[in-house]
Write a structure and sequence with these properties.
Number of domains: 2
Radius of gyration: 25 Å
Strand content: under 5%
Structural class: mainly alpha
Distance between the termini: 40 Å
Oligomer: single chain
Helix content: 55-70%
Shape: elongated
Strand order of the largest sheet: 1-2-3
Largest sheet: 3 strands, parallel
C-alpha cells in the first residue's frame, strides 16, 4: 500500500509519481530509526513542548479541512476533465464553480470507471472491517483494483479510445543524492514553514493517537527530531515533503503491527517496486488512483462526527472546530492550523479571565495531613484550577506519578484516590478525557478513583465520555 500512497501523494503535489515512490522509501526508513510512533509511517531547541498548543478540536478540524481540499483536487481526475490550475483563497469553491459551468466536458467513460472503483473500494473495505476477525485476513482490494484496471486499460488502449489519463512512465532505480538548490530558498521559505507546521501537527497527532491506543510513551522532542531528519535527508533524493499518513497508520492498526520493524519491511517492499514493478504501473488510470485516494481519506472525513461529542461536552470546542474548518477550506491547511491555535488560546485565556477563582494550581494536596494517619490507603487530591487542553496533560502525568509512588509505599493496603473537583471552574473536552483517562489508568494500578465536588455539567460530561 505504501507505493500506492506515494504515487498518490506525488500526483496531489503536481510532481512526477516517481518522487512519491522515493519518499515512500526514504522517509519511513529514517523515521523508523529515530521516531517513537510505532504505527507511524511517515529537538535541538526543545520546541516539542509546543505541541501542547495543538488541541484535539484544532487538529481534527484542520485535518478534515485538508482532506476536503484533497478530495477537491481529485475531482478533475474522477470526472476526466481538463481543468486549469486553480489555487489561492476560496480556490476550492472556484474549482467546483468551474466544474458546474463546464459540466459538458465530463468524460462518461472516466466517470463510470471512477464510480465503479469508489463503490467497489467502499464496499470491500466495509466488509473487510466487519469480517476480518472471522476470515483472518484483509482483502487487498486496492492492489487488486490496480492490477485489473491497469490490465483493462492496456488491453483496450483506453488513453486513445477514451482519452483516459494514465500514470505514465515511471523510471526504475534510486537517484544519486544531490544537494537541493539553495538559491530558491528565499522564495519558498514562507510556504515551506506552513508545510512543515502542518506536516508536524499531523504526525504528532497520529503519534499521540497511536500511543494512547496502544499505551506506549511518546517524546515530543524526539518526534520533532525524527520528523526533521525524515524531511532533510530525503530532500537530497528529490523526495517531496512528508509527514505521517492517516491512511498508512490505520493500515498498521489493522495489520496488528507493534514496532517500527513494520515500516522497515514496507521500505524493502517499496524498494522492490522501485526497481522491478514501477514500469508496470504505466497503464494505471488516474481516475482509479483518485478513487483510492478519496476512499483512503474516509477516516479523516468522518471526523465530522466529532462535532456531536464537542457539542455535548464543551460548546466552545464545537465553535473552535467549526471556525478552524471554515478557515482551512477557505484558505489552506497552514492558515487553518495557525488560526485554530491562536483562536483556541484566545478562548482559553478569555475563559480563565472570566473564571471565579483566579489561581492556577495544577494539584493542591490539602487533606493529606488529616486523612493519611486515620486512613493510610486514602489519597485526596484537589484540582484548584481550570482543566483544559493547556494543562490537562500535566495534571494527568503528575497524578499518575504521585499515585505510583504512593502505591509503592502502601503495597500492603488498598489505595483509594479522591479527586476534589471543587476548584475546576471550567473544563473542555480534553480536560474531561484527561479525568476519564486518569480513572482508567489508575484502575490498572488497582487504585479506586472517586470524584467529589463535581458540578452538574462535569458529571454529565464524565458520564458522556464513559467514566464510571
Amino acid at each position: 500500500m505504501d507505493y500506492i500512497l506515494g504515487i498518490a501523494f506525488a500526483v496531489m503535489s503536481s510532481v512526477h509519481p516517481v518522487f512519491g515512490l522515493y519518499g515512500s522509501f526514504f522517509a519511513p526508513l529514517i523515521y523508523a530509526i529515530f521516531g517513537m510512533g510505532r504505527h507511524m509511517s511517515m529537538f535541538l531547541l526543545n520546541l516539542g513542548c509546543t505541541t501542547v498548543l495543538l488541541s484535539e478540536p484544532v487538529v481534527s478540524a484542520m485535518t478534515t479541512g485538508a482532506a476536503t481540499h484533497v478530495v477537491t483536487s481529485q475531482v478533475k481526475f474522477l470526472l476526466g476533465m481538463k481543468m486549469p490550475y486553480i489555487s489561492g483563497p476560496l480556490g476550492m469553491f472556484y474549482i467546483y464553480s468551474y466544474v458546474f459551468k463546464n459540466i459538458s466536458l465530463i468524460q462518461f467513460g472516466v466517470l463510470l470507471l471512477s464510480s465503479l472503483s469508489l463503490v467497489v473500494l467502499i464496499l470491500t473495505k466495509e466488509l473487510n472491517e466487519k469480517f476480518k476477525s472471522k476470515i483472518g485476513f484483509v482483502i487487498p482490494i486496492d492492489l487488486a483494483l490496480i492490477i485489473l484496471t491497469s490490465l483493462a486499460c492496456y488491453l483496450a488502449d483506453m488513453p486513445k479510445s477514451h482519452g483516459m489519463d494514465v500514470v505514465g512512465h515511471i523510471p526504475t532505480g534510486l537517484p544519486l543524492p544531490k544537494v537541493p538548490p539553495m538559491d530558491i530558498l528565499q522564495h519558498v521559505v514562507v510556504e515551506a514553514f506552513g508545510v512543515a507546521l502542518v506536516g508536524y501537527a499531523v504526525s504528532i497527532f497520529l503519534a499521540y493517537s497511536s500511543s494512547k491506543k496502544f499505551k506506549y510513551p511518546i517524546c515530543e522532542n524526539q518526534e520533532l527530531f525524527a520528523h526533521g531528519l525524515s524531511n532533510i535527508i530525503p530532500s537530497f533524493f528529490f523526495c517531496i515533503p512528508n509527514s505521517g499518513a492517516p491512511v498508512r497508520t490505520f493500515i498498521s492498526y489493522s495489520a496488528a503491527s507493534k514496532t517500527q520493524v513494520t515500516s522497515l519491511i514496507a521500505c524493502v517492499l517499496v524498494l522492490l517496486v522501485i526497481y522491478f514493478v514501477a514500469p508496470l504501473l504505466y497503464w494505471l488510470p488516474m481516475c482509479v488512483l483518485a478513487a483510492i485516494i478519496v476512499v483512503g481519506l474516509k477516516g479523516m472525513l468522518i471526523q465530522f462526527r466529532d462535532l456531536k461529542k464537542y457539542w455535548n461536552v464543551d460548546k466552545c470546542d464545537w465553535v473552535i472546530w467549526i471556525c478552524t474548518y471554515l478557515v482551512t477550506i477557505c484558505f489552506a491547511a497552514n492558515m487553518g492550523l495557525l488560526f485554530g491555535v491562536v483562536f483556541s488560546i484566545a478562548v482559553g485565556v478569555l475563559r480563565i479571565t472570566r473564571a471565579k477563582i483566579m489561581r492556577v494550581v495544577y494539584m493542591h494536596e490539602e487533606y493529606n495531613a488529616v486523612t493519611e494517619d486515620k486512613y493510610p490507603g486514602l489519597k485526596v487530591v484537589s484540582i484548584g484550577a481550570p482543566l483544559f487542553f493547556l494543562n490537562a496533560k500535566r495534571v494527568h502525568v503528575d497524578i499518575l506519578e504521585m499515585i505510583r509512588k504512593f502505591v509503592t509505599r502502601r503495597d500492603s493496603c488498598t489505595v483509594t484516590l479522591v479527586l476534589d473537583c471543587h476548584g475546576i471552574t471550567f473544563l473542555d473536552y480534553t480536560g474531561v478525557i484527561s479525568l476519564t483517562q486518569i480513572s482508567q489508568d489508575l484502575r490498572e494500578l488497582d487504585t479506586e478513583v472517586l470524584f467529589t465536588g463535581c458540578s452538574v455539567s462535569l458529571v454529565k460530561a464524565l458520564m458522556y465520555c464513559g467514566a464510571d
